[in-house]
Every structure is written in structure tokens, then in C-alpha cells.
## 1
Amino acid sequence: MARTASLSGFPEWLPEERLVELHVLDTLRKVFELHGFASIETRAVETVGQLLRKGEIDKEVYGLSRLQDDDDTSDAGKAGKADPNALALHFDLTVPFARYVVENAGYLAFPFRRYQIQKVWRGERPQEGRAREFTQADIDVVGDGELPFRYDVEIALVIAEALSALPIPDFRLRINNRKLAEGFYRGIGLDDTAGVLRSIDKLEKIGPAKVAELLKTELGATDDQAQAALKLAGIRTEDTSFVARVRALGVTNDLLEEGLNELEQVIEAAVQRAPGKVVADLSIARGLDYYTGTVVETVLVGHEQLGSICSGGRYDALASKGNRKFPGVGLSIGVTRLVSRILSQDLAKASRSVPTAVLVALTNDDSWGAAQDIAAQLRSRGIATEVAAKAEKFGKQIKFADRRGIPFVWFTDDDGKHQVKDIRSGEQADADPATWTPPSEDLNVQVTTVQVPAAAAQPA
Amino acid sequence: MARTASLSGFPEWLPEERLVELHVLDTLRKVFELHGFASIETRAVETVGQLLRKGEIDKEVYGLSRLQDDDDTSDAGKAGKADPNALALHFDLTVPFARYVVENAGYLAFPFRRYQIQKVWRGERPQEGRAREFTQADIDVVGDGELPFRYDVEIALVIAEALSALPIPDFRLRINNRKLAEGFYRGIGLDDTAGVLRSIDKLEKIGPAKVAELLKTELGATDDQAQAALKLAGIRTEDTSFVARVRALGVTNDLLEEGLNELEQVIEAAVQRAPGKVVADLSIARGLDYYTGTVVETVLVGHEQLGSICSGGRYDALASKGNRKFPGVGLSIGVTRLVSRILSQDLAKASRSVPTAVLVALTNDDSWGAAQDIAAQLRSRGIATEVAAKAEKFGKQIKFADRRGIPFVWFTDDDGKHQVKDIRSGEQADADPATWTPPSEDLNVQVTTVQVPAAAAQPA
């Protein structure tokens, strides 16, 4: 495996790799639907104006234009840069979802809960864990006017359950709250809270000394203010003890209290319902995004350098229609980032490379019809079956099944006696097409975690 | 329903409409996998050079460029028109699949059978049945060097089975063979067979008189030649009697014989295995495409004006790597065209608009945790369940379920006694969270065909 994509940043999987990805997608869908999230898809394109509404992200956007667009620029637009009506590929699923909610508000029942699994595109330099085309799996709940905070708790629990069901290493949701951070900054006299967040967001990349420097030179913070902000960002607890630790810093502010209370609710529920999966991490900032409360990033334990595999939070003002506001909370799983890592490090494997469980061999060229009848009987019981195309020697037909990764070959002799051979063990036994079924582990493709020796589990 | 897309040609579905689409996609996937087709996806973009390899289609292609592409034109390319390395969105799944096969030939087992369900884009003028972004579902079998003709038969049967499993009106696969047509044209002395095919392809649009005119003026055909070509195109039979009818036209040609024999095999198998679903239709040409043998179009009975909902055929030279050829045969279902028609004419409906079967109501605000425990028990048995976010009056919580389309509401009183109410019938009964299950028709969303009165079944 680990072939190189023929176009940098646009990964494509082999069939056996795609089975791993399908397993991930099916698992996520199942968990989301069990929790009552409805599927939607939005178109791949938005207008440039819609995408750039929040500014500062146009560097990453792919604009569209019809190759032979001689006379018609209104809908596609060659000069994508300038024309807000020009079309471009979406770079996430949150902005399109917000537009969808506003457009269809009259047809939706609020709070509206949806999942959305689609490709998105970003024209960034490709690197490990960062592709130009990749799949995201999002869940969001959006309210009409208001949205109870309880959904912030629920969303975190649903995602913890979904990630737990995947064939991936252990993970941690690292959760913070913008109100907590912003209230604290105001409480210590730093009013450019967006500026502070932007600096704190660089903590993991450049370290505390340089962040302190930034806070002082760019935002005019005093040394005490910078140190206080860094102390807050240093708090990370697996339970609600972060509340006492923040209080011990001696800052008082109403917004801070609100944030503390919200984050406490999330962590309290997580300790009970997703033990070991969630930490309060007061360094999480989520950069310049549109979040207004809860913010979440997620790391794979032992793969921290891969970056966040699931991020999101609460946004109170992303979507609005006149005076009507649609606050929401949501999380987005980076499916391609996860699947790339699973495949490149052989963390999970499909039990075979094709859906087919049985190849019906041909005794002679005229037996194709009879073989199709047998195959139809097997398929009617959910057994994926194909029929050989040519009546080659049995050895050759077995070899064909072996090459394709098909575990069973079905033979019918001239007297109409049926036998089925497990070509892995070589065992062959009489079988009735009306009743035979393979062992349950062979019925469908299974994707299972590969057990890595403890010593090898650490990344290089 | 039948809202207008906010961007012409880019349809988006409401959640209950998406359930119909999901049902169609799930059904196709299931049938394809039961027949041993493996899933793959290719990237959404190809190089312009790759897409235009067969020429004459660039009018429809969307080129890509990074909106802030200041210095870097090598990978995206502003001047898409000229640069074959520029990127563009794929307009079908066959051309990308051919590229994928060539690139990954060393990793695939041939004959390689895959299904591929993805969006494609064409910058055409949108109209009924023709979108700019739409989903195709393709199956193909590709061989290394050679591919037995039997796969042409098999592909037609698999598609007939797949379409039969969908909640759509009756359909007909209309099948022809390029060898048959080309051999016949040569046999009557018309050597520009591509030109004749192109004219015959217009038969349904402009009628036989104008096609005869075209053949004479553009290709220099005599009146006899034009009439013979039209006679051939007029043959349409539900069984293999087309062979005798072609022979009765008195033309002899080796390629014609080969084509007659091939088409006979397909129709013979279809009469037996997909009775009533397939016709030999000697007017089918498939325009300028890359087909070399079997060609297929499919109409919905009573919806013929919608155009073909499933097309394809045999291509012997689409993919090659040096001297190595990869002949293939495949068919492509126009999923969006089908789903649009199902939705706009209410041909099928989802039994409810959300996946959720049960809403667990809250007795008081502190009961959220206990309600989550009940929900988890139900989910562990595959029952999609959500929990109310607020302890409003029961009447309000029932109203919420009703508005969301959730059939059951779960109540727990202060003594811990559980009851479940079917809010459609009003029936309420004791229930145990460890054992209760809804009736099987309520467990998952069902998508079923809507029975239309016979008189209304005819389109306007």
C-alpha cells in the first residue's frame, strides 16, 4: 500500500483500502442515525460571496469556470477573484449547512439535527494529514432563535461514541469554552480577546515564551497579563477540577463564570458517559473561526502530530435571516485524515479485498445459465456471489478466485451434485444452493483493528 | 416539495427527500455488492488533458483555479483553456475509471469489477432531467488484454436487477450493438459509419425523413442506402426475432454477423432472466461515445421524454498502457435524474422524515441523565432514539415529536414506571427499556412506491 497519489493532495484508494473507508463511513452513519441525525447533502459549489462571508479564507478556495465560457459569465465567472456570484468549491460543510438552513428554514423542524458526509476542497499545499480533496463527516444541531446548551453536551457524547466505534487508536476530545477564555482575558484587562485567542492558538507550534512575546508586542499586554493568559491555557484536567484551578487564578468576570459553568456541564457528563475520552483543555482556541462558546479539538493518542481529527463547537451567529437567528453546535470528523493514517500505518484491515464470498465455477461453457441460477439462490440469502466467465480448468478457476480474494468456490458436477471449497483451507464439502451459508465471519467483509505490538505502537 | 434550487442546475434535497435518495443509493450498492462489484471512488478532478482526450466535450467542463493563485499555476492553472495540466471537474465516471485502471493496473486483479457512485459536473444549460451537478452510479468490468463477451450479458442482467429493486416505474433496457450497425452500413456501402451513427442518433429528435435527408446531403448516401439504414433502425423486438428481421434485409457482412451473434446472446439471456425488461432496439446509437460493441439506453415507461436513465456499453480501447489494452463493459445509472423524477411526481415516499423512532421525554430537568440511559438501551437494539433537551410540559414534548415526525414518545414517571406512546394512534402502554421494540415497519425508515391511480399514471 502507501502508493503515491498521481495528483498530489488528491488521494485515491485501492478497492481493499476503500473497504476500510466504507467501514468508517458506514459506522459513522449508523451511530449518527441511531442518535436521530438526518442525512443531508449540499451542492459542492457555493458562490464566492457566500464562502468569503467570514473573510480571510480565500487563499484556500478553488474557483470554477466553464472551459468554453465565451459569452456567459453570470453563473460561473472567469474572474473569480472579484465576482461574488462566481462559483467555487466549498472548503467545509458548516458554511454550506448554514446557507441550507436559512434557505430551507420553512421546511425544517427545529432544533434541526443533521449529519453530512461529503468531500470538501482546499487549495493548500498538501502534506501528511492535509489533502486538497478530503471527506468530512459533520453533525450539527441548529435551533430557531435559541438552542439549549444541553446540545453542546450531547454533541460531544455522540462524537465520542462514534469515534469509539471506529478501528482507530485511543483518542481524546480536548474541550474549551470561548466564553471562559474571553471572560478571563477581559477580567485581566485584555480587551482584544480575538487577538489573544489568535496568539494562544499558536501555543503548541511556537511555545509559551514566544506566545508571551506576541501578547506583549502585538497586543500591548503587561508581563503579568501575558503570564495570567498562559496560566489559564496551561490548565488541562480529566474532570471538573479545572473550575477550582481557574478560580485559584483570582479573576472574576460574568462571562468567565458562564463559560466555567458550561464547560463544567460538558466535562461532568463526559466523565460519566465517555470516561477517559474527554479532557478540559483550556489551551484550545480554534483560531479565527466563528465559534462563540464550546470549542473542541480531538487528538489520536500516539498520533498527536497528525493534528485534530475532529473539531468544532458552538456558533451563535453563523446563520441568520433578517432578525431570525439560527444558533448551532456541531463537530466535524476528518475522515480522510483518519483513513489515511489507518492505511499508512496498517492500523486496520479488511478481511478480503472484494465483496464476493463465492465464485461459482463453470463445468463447461453451457453451464453458465445453471451457474447463474445457483448464484441467484445464494444472493437471495445475502451471499455476494459471482459466476466464472469461462469454463477453464478447475485449477485455473480456483486460482482466479484466489487472485481476487474470494474465499469460496462452488462446483457442480455433471450429475448435478454441488460442492463448495474453502480455498484457504482446501476443505471441500457437499452443499445445497438452497440452504448453504458461509460462516458468519465470511458472509460480509469485516474490517478489524490490527493489533500492534506495544513497542511498535509509538510513532517514529 | 418541488422547491426551486437556489442555484439553477444544482439540486438539493430536504431531509425527507434525501431519505428517498439514500434508499436508492443503498439499494444499488447492495445489488452491486451481491454481484461482487467492489466500491471505488476517484478524485473529483482530472487534468484537462485527460478529460479532453476524446475531444469534443470541452464545452461542458468546469475548470478549476485557486482564487488567490498568485505565483503557482502549475497545479491549478488559471488559463484552463490552454493548459492540459490544469485541473477540471470530471463530467462522468468512465474516463476517471479508465485512468484509475491504468494507474493501478499492478494492484488490481482482472477482470476487475467495480461500482462507483459519485457526483459529476457538466456546465450545460440546466433543464428537466439535466442538472449541472448530479450523481451517477456506474458498474464496469475491465479485463487485461481481453474480456469475454459474457460480461456484456452479465452487466445488462445486473442492471436490470438493480433497477427492478428501485421504487421507480417499469423500465426498458434498449440494447443495440455497434458491430451490427457498422457491419450493416459497410454491407450497404456506407463507410463513414461514425457519420451514419451520428445521424441515426438523431432519429427520435428529428424523425426519419430528416435523418434520411442528413444521410444523403452530409454523407452522400443514395436513397436506397438511406432507406436501408432507416429500416435497420426501425427494428425493435422483445426477443431474438430481430436476427431474422435483419437477415431479411439481405445484407451480408462479417462484422454484422458478429454483432448479430453478440446481441442475440444478450437478448436470449434477458428473455429468460429479466423477462419484459430488455428489448433489442436497433435505433440505439450512443452518439460519439467510445463504444465498440454493445450499447444500451434505458427508458422509464411512461416517462420516455425524461431521456435515458441508464446508459453505457462495451468499450475496447478506452484504457491502454503502452501495448497493454484494458477492454471494458459498463453501465451508468443517472441517480439524480431518477430521484428528481421520483420526488417531483411523488412516485415514492419515506415513511417518516427523520431516522428517529423514539423521543425520550423529560419528566424534569434533572432526568436528562436517566433519559440518556434509556436511550442508550434502546439504541443498543438498533432503535434510533433522541432525548428531549428541555423538561417542557408533556403535551409540548409530544408536539415536538410530532413536528419532527417521530412516531413514539417514551415517558418515565417519578416512580420509575416506563410507558411508550404511539403518537399517531394515541395508544400508550407499559414498556421495559431493556426489551421494548417498535413494530418492524417502524424500526427503520421505509421508502415505498406510492400507488398512483391508473388514470393519473400517464404523464401530461
## 2
Amino acid sequence: MTSIIRQDLSTRDWTIFSEKRAARPHDPGEKRKKKVLNSYEPGCPFCLGNEESTPEPLLVINGGGRWSVRVVKNKFPAVESMGSLEGGSYKKRHIEGPYLSIDGVGEHEVIIESPLHNDNIAKIDPDHVEKVVTAYKMRFIDVSNKFTNQLVIVFKNHGKRAGTSLDHPHSQLLAIPFVPGYIRNKMSESQRYYDEFGTCVYCDIINNEKSSGERLIYENEGYVAVAPYASSVPYNIIIYPKRHMSCFAEADKKELKGLAGILQLVLGKLYYLLDDPDYNFVIDTSTIDQSGNRHYHWHLEIMPRLSTRAGFEIGSGMNINHIMPETCAENLRKIRFIPNKKGGKK
Amino acid sequence: MTSIIRQDLSTRDWTIFSEKRAARPHDPGEKRKKKVLNSYEPGCPFCLGNEESTPEPLLVINGGGRWSVRVVKNKFPAVESMGSLEGGSYKKRHIEGPYLSIDGVGEHEVIIESPLHNDNIAKIDPDHVEKVVTAYKMRFIDVSNKFTNQLVIVFKNHGKRAGTSLDHPHSQLLAIPFVPGYIRNKMSESQRYYDEFGTCVYCDIINNEKSSGERLIYENEGYVAVAPYASSVPYNIIIYPKRHMSCFAEADKKELKGLAGILQLVLGKLYYLLDDPDYNFVIDTSTIDQSGNRHYHWHLEIMPRLSTRAGFEIGSGMNINHIMPETCAENLRKIRFIPNKKGGKK
């Protein structure tokens, strides 16, 4: 058997690993050309000096005599905050024939990660990355505490294949008024594991990965970065806090510093190994009202966009991956560079 | 509220509709250039005359003195058929620490839809499309009856953004030895609906769409094509058979002809409206051993690849769509063309 199907212990979802698939013929495609970016772009609404193109900031973190991180409302929101909550209309459900819909109430914010158009989390000052993740936490708490919001997702789209519409480095926060089935299912699987084994499934994964080491990419005081056993895509990476915390908002100041450090290091390894690949990352966490629960364990998942989700993946909900996580982890471990040195590969 | 969140009645998954998102600024991207294809490509393993590049065919359907449709094993399979079933090793599960894996046993076949490199289901002879869907059914039954296979998915990837590696028109069939959670969940939702209301949720959707008409794209004797109420992507289309059938294999000869007709018509409308967009389609069906059940209802779902699944979609399992299905259905209804006339827009 040259192909193996692995189960993700935390979700019970499966991935097919078939290294043979990597060898299949392709029609010659266009070679992706990387744009060279300037530090300032006159038409970019997120650049230093163009602040009037965005709404009033919700949060500004300064540094070096100017702003370092700025959070604004998304001008093209997927969901919108309620001006008034009168009459409880924020929870309005509509029945249309046999169907159900909900008003698109929520928040959609942009975390502008730097005043400079051509900055990159993988290469900026580590203290600056700490400001970015601090902004994540501050906005996560603020938005979560508004009672119209139920689920808050912090995510980043880097590069065209990852769905970015603007090059300027930014992340997003999106809050919706309910918990979708996908998340509920993940929560229910970890609850079931806890009921069966009396331990957090994520803590068990962390301990196993630390002791086996073959999928371990990096470890610092507070975190491990792992290529998951059932990685859904090539170079899939999960950063887990070692301390059991169900909700991202539980991370303290020191833990945010540790997160910034490992996030930058791992993104730097990806940058140098794969020539600045497009990727998404997502903070996967319990809701704030589930803080302190025993079965969930927040983590940050990075999904490079090196392959395309096609018909089988859409139809089955499974993924096909052509490279084993052990190989990815080994390649990422080998890459060494000096963080915060632009162009600084060791 | 300019944004609305709709629930898919059959899966209980949600989609956020926000037409504002369509207006957001984009960095200027490269305009996609369509390749002009020849009818024969010397290096293409699927072209007429190059049959020796593929393994022995599993099925050949002839027409006009040559083959029309040819099914071969995928030379770069995601999963592989078992040579021998001795010792029941086909069902081998492996325990690795806390994790579970299964041997990649299954089938991975390619349905070559035409001998000509530049053919397109949207434009070939309707009788030829009937041969393609007949090949789907024949291979679906044959593969399903092999007791190592549990789930069989027939799908098509059209164009680079849909994950095609070869331009020559082809579909695929992939069989795996178990049912993944995503499918089990869909089955369980339709079972629950049946238990609650005593009717098939898909039959209820079909009746509702026929009577309201606002999301109806096309209807023939046996089928309706609908823009789903909670469409996950722009121009999402589902073709439902009107007769209740849980499994695709239940479709008889006349029903396959009807499927070919509506599939070609709908793909033709997409072709002319959106200039040959990339798309995936998937036959979503119960397994063959669930044929005749009362709660599931097979259908064919088309997902054009006009937008990119980004961090929020990955993290939440929900989709954000910037065009309402009522608009898509109206635009598709308006497009009229003469099937089987190359370049034949009315």
C-alpha cells in the first residue's frame, strides 16, 4: 500500500496521503510571479499617511513615534454591527417557506499589522508581532463581550491563493451571532473524548508529539508547533499552547509574547523554505463563555495554499495530501534563519 | 441589514450573503487568459491515438466508429485497489500511539469524456453526454459492488482553479473503504428531518423551489436545476431528480438521458453567461447498500470556482457569498442558446 488514510484524533476527520499523486503530469501552468512591493502605496487604504481612507480606529497600538498596529471596521463587511438593539431585533430569525435565515448581525474588523505596505510578520521586529497578537486578544475580548456576538474568528489571508484582496499586511476578525455546525461538531468530539478518557484530546496530542518528536517543528517555553498527524494540506502547521486553555482570551501577557515568537519563527521557516507561500491562519478557540472548560484547547492553525481543493474534497469533506507531515516537519526543522533580519537566512 | 445568513435545510449549514463584499477594492490581478486548445495534443495520455499511455480500459463506450467514452484506472491514484483480499487485510486499521489509520484501499478511475482534447460537455452532442453519465452509473455500480469499497464519489474538475491537472475533458471516480463524517452528518440530518416531518427533505426542497420559482433555473421531465437557497458559492447549482431516489444507481435509462440533457443545458448556460468558468461537480448520493431509503435523495451539485475560500471559511466551515441565488437563477434563466451548436448562442 503506498497510500494511507489517517484520522485526526480531535475531529475524527480523515485525510488520504498519497505521495504518488505528487508525480502526476500537469499541463504547463504559468509560473507564479511574486510582486515586488513598495513600503508605501498611494492608493492603499492601510498605508501610513492614508489613515483617512479607513473609518475611525477601534484600537491603535503605537511604537517608535507612530502607530504599529491599527484596527478598523471592515468597509466591506460580511456582517454588520447593530446600531440599536431595541426590541431584541438582533436575534431575529426569519422563516421563508421551509427555510430559515438570520439577520447578518456581527462584527467584521481589519487588523492592520504594520504601517508599511511591504512588511511581513515573518520578518518584522518580534516586539511588533507581539503587538499584533495583543491586538487580536484585545479585539477578541471586546467583540466577544458584546452579547449579539456568539462566535469570534481571528484569521489571516496571505497572498492571492489565500483570498487576499489587498497586499498590505493585515488580519481580520469576524463575529457571528451563532455557532455553526462545523465548530459545534469539533467541540462535541473533544467533549466526547473527555468523557471517554478523562483528558483533553489536545493535551494528549501535544504530549504525544513532544515525546515522539517526528512531527515536531519547534518548541518554546509555552508552545509547540506541530505538523498534524492527519495534516489536511501540505505544510499544515498547528501551534498549541502547552498550558491547557480552552479560550484564546485566557492567554496572559507572557503567553502572548511566546505566541508571537513561535508564530514568527514558524512563518519565517515557511517563508524561506517555500519562497513566501500563500497561506491562511486561523485561531481556533472556544467561545469566551466557554473559557476554562476542560475539553477544548485553543490553537492557531496555518494552512499553506500549495494545492487546490477539488471535486473529491468538496464531495467527501476529506482531503488528499501528497506529502507526509513527518517530511514537512523535517524540512521545516532544517531551515534555520535569524528572525528579524530582513533577508536573513543563516 | 444588508447582510443575511441563510441555512441549508438539508445539512443545517449556513452561508453569509453580503452583496457589499463584491464592491471591495482589489489589487490589480492578472487577467485570466483562456488557453485555446487543439483537438489533438501529442503528449496528452487521454487523446485519440494515445491510448497506449493509459492502462487497459475498464469500460469503453463506442460511437461513430471510434470510442466516445473510455474509463481507465488513474495512473496516479489517491487510493489503490487490492490485488488480493487474502486474510481480510483490506480492512486493516493501524494504531499509532493515540492515532488511527487505514490502508489506502479503494479505486481511483478516470472517465475520459471524449477522444478530442478540446471537447466540452457544454457543447458536445447530447447523445454523447448520455454516454458519459451512463459510464458514471456503470462504473459506480461496478465499484460499489466490490466489498472493499464503502463510499463512491463521481466528480469533475473543470479548469485550473477547480484543480484540474490535465485539460483533456475527463471526470473521476474515487472509492474509499468507509464513510467520512461529513457525509455521515448529511445523512443523519436528512434522517432526522424524515423522523420529524415524515417526508424527504430534498423532496420538500424540490416542491418548494418548483412552486416559488425564484431560484429555479431549468426543469425537464425528470429533473429540476436550482440555485440553492443557501448557495455556498456564486452560481452554485443543484440538479435534483424529481422522483425520490436515494442512490444514483437507481436512475434508469430514461432518467440518465434526462440527466444528460439538463446537465448539458445548465453547463451551457454557465459557459455562455460566465465565459467558460472553472467549476467542480459532484454526484452526491447514498451508498448503494442504502438504495431505496426514504430520507436521502441523490443530486448533482455544480460549484463554479469564481471566489476563493479564505481564512474565515476554513475556520468556521461556513461560506461567504456575495451574490444572492435569486440573482444567479435569473441571470441563468435569461441565457438562451442552442445546445450542440459549437459557439451557438441564440
## 3
Amino acid sequence: MPELRKSPIMERWVIISTERGKRPLDFKREKKPMVGGFCPFCTGKEDKTPPEVLAYRDPLSTPNSPGWKVRVVPNKFPALQIEGDLDKRGDGIYDLMRGVGAHEVLIESPDHTKNLHHLPQEHIESIFWALRDRCIDLKKDSRFRYILIFKNWGEEAGASLEHSHMQVIATPIIPKRAIEELEGSKFHYKLKERCIFCDILKQEQKEGSRIIYSNEYFIAIAPYASRFPFETWILPLQHISAFEKTPTEWFPALADIMKTVLTRLDITLDEPPFNFIIHSAPCKTPDLDYYHWHIEIMPKLTKVAGFEWGSGFYINPTPPEYAAEVLRDVDIGGADDKNTTKEKVEDKEWPQKKSK
Amino acid sequence: MPELRKSPIMERWVIISTERGKRPLDFKREKKPMVGGFCPFCTGKEDKTPPEVLAYRDPLSTPNSPGWKVRVVPNKFPALQIEGDLDKRGDGIYDLMRGVGAHEVLIESPDHTKNLHHLPQEHIESIFWALRDRCIDLKKDSRFRYILIFKNWGEEAGASLEHSHMQVIATPIIPKRAIEELEGSKFHYKLKERCIFCDILKQEQKEGSRIIYSNEYFIAIAPYASRFPFETWILPLQHISAFEKTPTEWFPALADIMKTVLTRLDITLDEPPFNFIIHSAPCKTPDLDYYHWHIEIMPKLTKVAGFEWGSGFYINPTPPEYAAEVLRDVDIGGADDKNTTKEKVEDKEWPQKKSK
């Protein structure tokens, strides 16, 4: 019998469809090899992007030339444009404003062939430092209400360029999805005087069945109401509402958990296309007792279709307890383990068979 | 400069990104030929589906055998299951219930190769009659709160079978997306004592720039805050809240507008994959003054990526005024016109160049 599960944070229901149950090998697809060729993000092609707004580079190198490790540039085809004011206005019953905002690209490394988690842990850490620097800088602009950091990897996940990168968009209004989370968690706080995310962590730590990995400062879980197969959330273990206020000493652990989780997804699902997003407190807010920043990783294995568009519900054919068990047990010792891991994965029982 | 447009019905913002502007030929993709082979929806294979719940068939034929024109069967792999009660319960901070509901498939015709709009108008009309019959029947079940009708066509739009079909899902809770529309339009009604959809129709009829087609009882528009390129909404011109209460004499016009609009999308975008959904008043409600049933057609031309997942905003690279102009002017005289139409399409100026 399928289960209808509600997100504890907002009014979002998910159908966990065990009858359509899907294990990792059911998501097998034709893997597209890297095309290569001309790439504006590769080292030596710095003049093919707008001038950098931030780069961690060799002190002897000059801006917009080789010698960088992480580089942030404005998007050449921005969804929102940096100049001008909002000019909010009406048009009969309609409301509009000018599409003012920032749209930046963070190029994760000079190497075209490396995805985020292929990089050494300290390199990943420096990427998060660069993201933090950009958040702090963009939050100074009084026109912006929210900063969204996200990554698309793989064509099916909407990446238009192969070279691994993230994007940072600053918007003049708080996005719908962020408002839903903020309002949902504020409602919980009003009732209980507790952060809903801290409550989730406590229940998950007690139950254990949806934990994928944890270290000193972060935890990775398969959310109770996962929308997608192998959806994974990473949260700081201690309460903190804004990503850019994460203490310095947590950054190595953040890099470690991202590298571990993405590597395990890669091994389990054979390098799946994926999106991840960072949800954090909006600009112009003090530290929030009711909100907790986190990362949502969504492997792109199923297609969003009419039912999802029409209902806002999701049908997830892989129970999160099963996904967590598979991802928890992946041996990331080396690439040679791939086949062994897959056999192990195929042996895993569906969680509902075990319970009751 | 991109524009941020708000849906007049709910808190949904869309970035109309003229800088990334895309015309029909920009959406060219590799078209996958029909695979054919075994199909459980084809005539003669009636025993490969669960027994039919409804069929319009030759009076001399017997159920679950050839001789049908339109056939409705339970989904063999249902997202929700018809038996049992909801058993709503909690699990610590989490809420869940059993996945009870109906999940049916409407097979549009015995012909494997025909999409909905390839069928004669009176055949399309009978499909809408069958949908109406199923709605009326499912609404009798007191466990159900909402009936969602939708269609996925093409692999990229999530269709798992080639043979053209629609789906009907009855859910035990009103879906999030429906609640948002219902609450948004109720809010407008409280302020103005007018239906927001009727207001939209009036403004669109006055302006004309987003009208694609209309007939005696229905109108097709490119919505002001279209999420997707060439998104098209079909609405009854007169106020009516529930699809299944549509008067008999409107059905030929409904079939006509669906055939016309889908044919024009096919010609303009070279048979794009698409989803459509029908949004209607929930079960157990009287006629609603504030809500207006409608069809949302979404060609699947762009990929939903991290920004959309993280924000709930959409980036639409094709202004709806342009899409409407292109679709309005399509000559559906015959297949031979395809190339001529495309040239005409390429000549169209972006709407913003004309205004101001």
C-alpha cells in the first residue's frame, strides 16, 4: 500500500509508491559522454566570460588570466540584470517589476573533467568560502531580498555547460519556495518554541533509519517526505539560520559531507544528473530562531509530469528508508568497488518488508 | 531588461527573460520515432489491462474486447490504491496516511499512432464525455477530495507508454497546487466580489495580445505569467467552477478548441512533448462563485533546474505575447503548410520591440 507523507515543514504531500518501487539499477540510463571542445570556463579562456567578481588565485597571477583555483563571474546570459531599480507597477489586474537581480557563476576548478566531489576536500572547502564571500557581498545590496545558491549537473538536470559550476542568484523578492519553508517553520516555532529542523534532526538521530552520513558538524538524511528517489538533505547539527554565518571551524566538515554524499550517489546511481540548492535565511533578517539553513540534493532520475504539475504532489518510487540504507552502506574505498557495491545494493530488502 | 511577472491568481512569480529569448526553432530537438511493438492499450490487447470501468463501444461488442472507441481502465501500476480507508496517523513529528485513491487511464482511441488532436472533433468530444462521466462517478466516493485529470505526451513529458492516453487521479486530500489557486481566487473574490478568472478573461479580451484562439464557449490564451514557453490555458468564457458541470452544448466547442490549439502547437514546435492538466473545483463543494475551471497545456521545451526547484520561480525565455502571436497566426490548413508557417514564425518580431 502506498503511503501519503506530509512534509513536516510545509503543506507538501508525497506519495511513497512502494508498488512502483525502484532500486538503483531501475534508474539505469544511457550515460552521455563529455563532449569537450570549446569551454569558456576552462583555464586560458578567462576572456570568454565577463570579468571575475571574485577569484582565489596564485598571488603572482593577474585577474582574468590563468592561475586561479575558484573563480566567480557574472552570468553572460543572466536571468536577472544587475542595473537599475525595480520599478514596481501594475497593468490592469497584473503586477510586474523589472527583472533586477544578480546572477553569478562559480567555476569550481580549472579542470573541465572534474565534478565538485572529485576535487580534494580542501578545494571543496574553498568553494564554500567563495560562496560565503559572495553571499556577504550581495547582501549589502539593499535591493536584494534573497540569495539562492544552486548547482545543475548533467544535461537532464538543466546544465547547459559541462564544466562543473554553481550559480548564485540574488532576487528582489523572497521566492515562493523559501516563503513556504519560512512560514511553515515559523508556524511550528509559534506552537512549540522549537525549530522544526532541530526537531527533525532529533527524531532522525533517534530513529536512525534515514541517516546517510554524519560528521562532527553536519548530518545527511533522506527526508521523511522525499520528493525524489535518493533525495538527500544536509543540515548543520547545531541551529543556525544563515549559510554565510556558518562558523569557520565547520567548513572542513561541510566539505567532507558534500564530498562523501555526492561520491556515494555517484557510485550507487552511476553518476546521476543532479541539482542541489542551498536554502538559507533571507537578506535583511537577524538570526532566526525558527529557521535552519540546509542543502537539498535532488538526483534527476524521474520525470516531473502532469500529475506533479497539476497537484504539487510528488510520486516517489523509492522509500527514503531504503535510499538511506543503500547510501549508508556504500563503500567509497575506491572505484574498483563499484560492482561489488551494486551487487550489495541489489540484495537490499525494501524497508517495509522488515517493519511490522 | 527581463520582467518579473506575478500570477494574478497566486504568489507565483515568473521571470520573462527576453535576453535569453527563444523562438520556436530554438527549441529544436531530436525527435524520437514511435517505437511500436507490444502495446497494452491497442485494440485486441484488452486483456492486458485491468477490466474496463467505462467504454464507449459498439453495442454489439462485449466488455474488454475490441469494438471500443474510448476506454477507461484502472492503472495497472497505480500511484494510489482504491481499497481501504485512510488511517491518518502520526509518527513523532511526521504525518502520514495510507495512499488511498483512484488512478485510472483513459485510452483515447484504439489507434496506436494517433495523438488526441489527430482524432476527429466528435471523437475528442466523446473523450471529454468519458472524462465527465468518470468525474461524476468518482465524486460519489466520500473518501475523495479532488479529481485531477492530466495527460503526459512524449517521453520527455513523462509518458511511459506511447499510445495516446490521459489519466484520472482521485486524491484523499486537496492537492497543494489546487489549494493555492482556490485560496488565491477566494482572496480576490473577497476583495472585489468578482472571479479572478473572469477578470483575466475580460482584460485579455480587451487587450487581445495574448489571445491564441476562441470560439463560442471557450478561449485559449498565453497566460500573462506563463511559466513555460508556449504555455496555453483554455477557459470557458462563462463562469463555471467544475469541469463536470459544463453544459452539454459547450462540448463540441471544447473539442474544437483542444484540437485547434494542440494542432497549432504541433505545427509551430514540431510535435513537442507536452503535459496538460484540468483544474476544477474540489469534490464536496457547491458551485463556487470564485473559482473557474480551466485547462493548462505545458509544452515540455525547457528543463526545470536548480533555480526553479529552489525558488518556485520559473524562467521563461519566450514572452507570452510573442507565443500568442505565433500560435494565433498558424495556418492549420494542411500539413503542406508546415514549412511556410515556420518561415512566417521566424519573421515575427519580439513583442517588446513593437511596444513603446
